[in-house]
Design goal:
By secondary structure, this protein is an alpha+beta fold. The chain has ten helices and 14 strands. The longest helix is centred in the first third of the chain and has 20 residues.
């Protein structure tokens, strides 16, 4: 009886494996057209992750490689009612996005035209991921192509025109990218640009936020008047600039109840030049004298 149960179990596993690995049915045994849909079905039964990866590789033609001893792959199973019936390229992107739920990523390696994709645990591959991002040039016209491409690891340069405080913008954007040193945002003030590396949806989110923040601002008191450089001897220009900017920030005062709210309507523009340890102050004569004092 025990042998009979073992035979039945092995037969079930063999049938499941064949169902997963079988290519889509072909009419008249002819090779399908390049745009013909490919199919990978996941029935309402647990399917080992390595079998799912074999099926995706077979029907998409994309070579996938993984470590069979990796417990993060060996110990995972996929289950659900998913009918992946779509063109090969879309099916590969769909499967790559699905793997993010299991914290698995596909990393392309090898020369162009002969690449294979390594399937690895995203939590343990930060050093590899930093070396293997796909460089793309983003524009308003093509960002929709990447916005929903989960699992695709990208790097790009995002140029700004009007933004001056790139450091604080980078601090805000860092909260969006993937943690554990996988995602990264670096500002390059001299080039007025950010370098963003992360999974595609996060890169697109950073792109859209940067473009929203990069707006010309109308500030008569900072664009008119004159600019002077104040050289510091004992203080650090960057720290002092932050203090002065906060001091001159346009914030409402705290009036008594019933009194009108008073708001600062003008403020000097203050920036720091760390290389020369100078403050650059732009404004009218009264504002500049106030800052100097």
């Amino acid at each position: 009886m025990r042998q009979l149960h073992r035979f039945a179990w092995l037969t079930t596993c063999a049938l499941l494996t064949l169902a997963l690995l079988a290519p889509p049915a072909l009419a008249d045994d002819k090779k399908p057209a390049e745009d013909a849909p490919s199919v990978v079905n996941v029935a309402n039964e647990e399917v080992p992750m390595d079998q799912f990866l074999r099926a995706v590789s077979r029907v998409t033609g994309v070579p996938l490689v993984w470590n069979p001893a990796d417990k993060n792959i060996r110990g995972k199973k996929i289950i659900g009612n998913v009918d992946m019936n779509m063109p090969r390229e879309e099916l590969f992107s769909y499967a790559r996005a699905l793997l993010t739920f299991y914290e698995l990523v596909m990393i392309p390696v090898g020369p162009t035209g002969h690449q294979v994709h390594l399937v690895m645990d995203a939590r343990q591959t930060s050093s590899i991921l930093r070396l293997k991002p796909e460089h793309v040039t983003l524009t308003d016209a093509n960002i929709a192509e990447f916005a929903d491409d989960d699992g695709r690891f990208l790097t790009t340069t995002i140029q700004v025109e009007h933004m001056d405080d790139l450091r604080n913008a980078r601090n805000a954007l860092t909260r969006i990218v993937t943690g554990q040193n996988i995602g990264n945002v670096t500002e390059v003030p001299a080039a007025k640009a950010f370098i963003v590396t992360d999974f595609a949806p996060n890169v697109i989110a950073c792109y859209r936020l940067i473009k929203q923040m990069d707006r010309a601002q109308v500030r008569p008191s900072t664009t008119n008047g004159r600019t002077v450089a104040i050289t510091l001897e004992h203080a650090q220009a960057h720290d002092l600039a932050k203090t002065l900017v906060q001091h001159y920030a346009r914030v409402p005062a705290s009036p008594q109840r019933g009194a009108p709210t008073m708001t600062r309507t003008s403020a000097p523009r203050i920036t720091a030049d760390a290389r020369t340890n100078q403050l650059l102050v732009t404004g009218d004569d009264a504002e500049i004298k106030a800052v100097q004092a």
